[in-house]
């Protein structure tokens, strides 16, 4: 007999993804879905599979995931995003590990699929993340974006990856880019980071060079090239939004003459 496990899934307007995500974890003991403001059919779809659907105000991914963990009742937490899937191989590995767990947490790699193609270069894979942990021993950082689990205890790695259906189309990528760059700029602003033109000039091309050449993104063909260009643009927009916030702050603090 393995120990009990709860899958915690954070969603917002994921009607196209949530059913496949939930179906991939239909073997767990409990499913908790935390919705942060969907306006599509996400909530209705999720309620077909679990009664543990909660609607909260979005205050960052870390806080939303911690809320989901607080609603879980199992000994173990499996944290997922709606565009992620647990393969049968990873399911079997998790169930075997939880028969005799020897750690408080387990890192799982993510295999990303960009425009329908598995991306294995450019620094995106294997991209290990701590997604399986004992309840009460792990807590998500309160970062609005790029949150991570802070674990009290030891961790090791599982072999099989999470399948990450990251961006099925360019429209999806660009819509997500707007959200994530705003959150990243907000995080820099709240941390007190000042704007420097050199970052706007240098960081985007460096991101392209790092992903496409240094981390062999060119081996992923056209997909790798597009991903490197778009990632560089992501960095550019993030710092442009930080500049905008600093400019608005300066204007607000400038007394009228």
Brief write-up:
This protein has 257 residues and is α/β, with parallel strands linked by helices.
What layout of secondary structure does this protein have?
Blueprint: E1 5-11, H1 18-23, E2 30-35, H2 42-46, E3 53-55, H3 61-70, E4 76-81, E5 84-86, H4 88-97, E6 105-108, E7 110-114, E8 117-118, E9 129-134, E10 138-140, E11 149-151, E12 155-157, E13 162-167, H5 170-190, H6 197-214, H7 221-253
Helix pairs in contact: 5-7, 6-7
Write the element-wise H/E pattern from the N-terminal end onward: EHEHEHEEHEEEEEEEEHHH
Look at the structure and give the CATH class of the largest domain: Alpha Beta
Number of strands: 13
* Uncertain stretches of 5 or more adjacent residues: none
Description:
By secondary structure, the chain is an alpha/beta fold. The chain folds into two domains: 5-166, Spore Coat Polysaccharide Biosynthesis Protein SpsA, Chain A (Alpha-Beta Complex); 169-253, no CATH class. Helix content is 40%, strand content 22%. The protein has seven helices and 13 strands. It has helices at 18-23, 42-46, 61-70, 88-97, 170-190, 197-214, 221-253, and strands at residues 5-11, 30-35, 53-55, 76-81, 84-86, 105-108, 110-114, 117-118, 129-134, 138-140, 149-151, 155-157, 162-167. The strands form three sheets. Strands 3-2-1-4-9-6-12 form a seven-stranded mixed sheet. Strands 5-13-7-8 form a four-stranded mixed sheet. A two-stranded antiparallel sheet has the order 10-11. β1 (5-11), α1 and β2 form a beta-alpha-beta unit. α5 (170-190) runs parallel beside α7. The longest helix is centred in the last third of the chain and has 33 residues, at 221-253. The chain is globular, with a radius of gyration of 20 Å. 34% of the residues are buried. The model has no long low-confidence stretch (mean pLDDT 95).
């Amino acid at each position: 007999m393995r120990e009990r496990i709860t899958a915690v899934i954070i969603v917002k307007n994921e009607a196209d993804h949530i059913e496949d995500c939930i179906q991939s974890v239909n073997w767990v003991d409990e499913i908790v879905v935390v919705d942060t403001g969907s306006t599509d059919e996400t909530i209705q779809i999720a309620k077909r599979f679990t009664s543990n659907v909660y609607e909260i105000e979005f205050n960052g991914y870390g806080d939303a995931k911690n809320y989901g963990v607080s609603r879980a009742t199992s000994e173990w937490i499996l944290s997922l995003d709606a565009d992620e899937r647990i393969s049968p191989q990873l399911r079997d590995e998790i169930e075997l590990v939880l028969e005799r767990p020897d750690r408080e947490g387990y890192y799982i790699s993510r295999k990303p699929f960009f425009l329908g193609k598995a991306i294995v270069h450019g620094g995106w894979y294997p991209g290990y993340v701590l997604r399986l942990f004992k309840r009460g021993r792990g807590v998500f950082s309160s970062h609005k974006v790029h949150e991570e689990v802070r674990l009290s205890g030891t961790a090791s790695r599982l072999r099989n990856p999470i399948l990450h259906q990251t961006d099925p189309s360019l429209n999806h990528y660009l819509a997500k880019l707007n959200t994530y760059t705003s959150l990243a700029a907000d995080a820099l602003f709240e941390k007190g980071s000042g704007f420097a033109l050199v970052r706007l000039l240098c960081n985007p091309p460096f991101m392209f060079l790092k992903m496409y050449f240094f981390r062999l993104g060119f081996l992923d063909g056209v997909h790798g090239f597009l991903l490197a260009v778009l990632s560089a643009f992501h960095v550019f927009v993030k710092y442009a939004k930080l500049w905008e916030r600093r400019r608005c702050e300066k204007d607000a603090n400038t007394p009228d003459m």
